[in-house]
Amino acid sequence: MPEATVRTVEMGRLAGMDAREATRLLQRVRDTALRGGRPTPGPRADIGASWQRMMRTGVDPDRDRRSGLLGPDELARRRAESPLAQVLPVLREGLMAGTGGGPMRHIMVVGDAEGRVLWREGHPAVLRSADIHGFVPGADWRESTVGTNGLGTSLVTRRPVQVHSAEHFVSTHHPWTCAGAPITDPRDGTLLGAVDVSGPLGTMQPLTLLLVASVARLAEAELRNRHLTELARLRSVAAPLLCRVGGRALVVDPHGWTAAVTGVAPPDRLPLPASFAAGRVWLPSLGACVAEPLPGGWLLRVVDEEPAAGAGAGRVVLDMSRPRRWTVEVSGAAGGWIQELSPRHAELLYLLAVHRDGRTAAELAGDLFGDRTRTVTVRAELSRIRRTLAGVLDHRPYRFRDEVEVAVVPPADPADLLPHSTAPAVAAARAGRAGPLTGARSAGATGAGRLSVDMVSTPWDGPHPAGPVDPRGRPGLPDSPGRPGLAGRPGRAAVDRPVAGRPAGRGSLGP
Predict the structure, then answer these.
(1) pTM of the entire structure?
(2) Residue 414, SS3 per DSSP
């Protein structure tokens, strides 16, 4: 039977079934898959892909595996340093209304990008059940540790995931239903962690996943609004300062977002070195600059000088070896830098590395979406990539420049290539149906001793809402949307208490 026609077990169907009947159906699907068969109906795509990862990595489907908990000091440190602490009120208000004695009997769990549980809150009885399974603050809830689950699997796929009963790979988790969604930092696209709603099987609703995903987006909007406020504060300092500066200069925040400029075209964002300090620095898009610290940012004065001969980029290394963090390293006679890639940009650069002879927008649209007509999306994404990689990329067709050496660091198992991706070309590469690299070569390491710069692609389409201003005009911040309203009021919920023998640490969610 062709793969496209295989029926899958959808959440709407499970919601209309008796809980025990639904569990038995999912158990039959799981047992058939574990024996190497092809169940009908089959698991949903994200669930089936997760089961395949678990079988490849040797996770025991019948044994509850647990790793060591974080110590109280390490847990407190991670809580204090996580930007997710700023959006806990948004998450609580959106997901925990009515928990205290109301109809909702679930818990909310917030984990960091490494899958460590940082906070829990919810119905007391469900919290006690979670304690039995080790679903406690400090626990390692990565997919590779505890199997398919809402928190860990959403971190791998980078999209919302709902896991019900026997869709969990490990059988001891079958009494649970959960839905998780990743949360990214809107300032730089970094994966911050995930939020998950879990509870007994009777709490499953088809719309739970939509609710969790929507609240995760509200949390990102809150972080974005906080960033706009910080940029406005920096702009108030920068505008009068730049009026007195001669020559070309910019003021940027610690993430490289432009607050004000003079004498140069205003970029949305500049890639800054990971270890940025006052003094002379080389930036890919500006060249030599002198950096001076400001409250909440940096003043960058451009140094006008002739570029050195042979200063162009000579080598590009795409590191695809990790499941949730992909980078491109560019190096040449003038130095080097590293950019962390968004999921879409990782897909595009991988495809360009595979096809050194180049790809048209239509060909890339077919590679990414299976639809050659979606060229507008492809051109927009490549335009963003070329803002920082113009020195190594060419167009008509889109390709790496001929003089640039391109190397790819693949994952240890080809099936782990860009696990989030649904692009047909990437899926074919994971399945071993794609041809070898044409012009790019695999690399075992990216080399050492180069100047390392962290640059991260913007996670949303278009320029930053704040936008840069020229102080010689009328600096100002466009009206930004207020914090989105949230329906309902938070109910009284049980606050996570210390697990026996271990304190909960600072930063626990309060009532």
Answers:
(1) 0.69
(2) helix
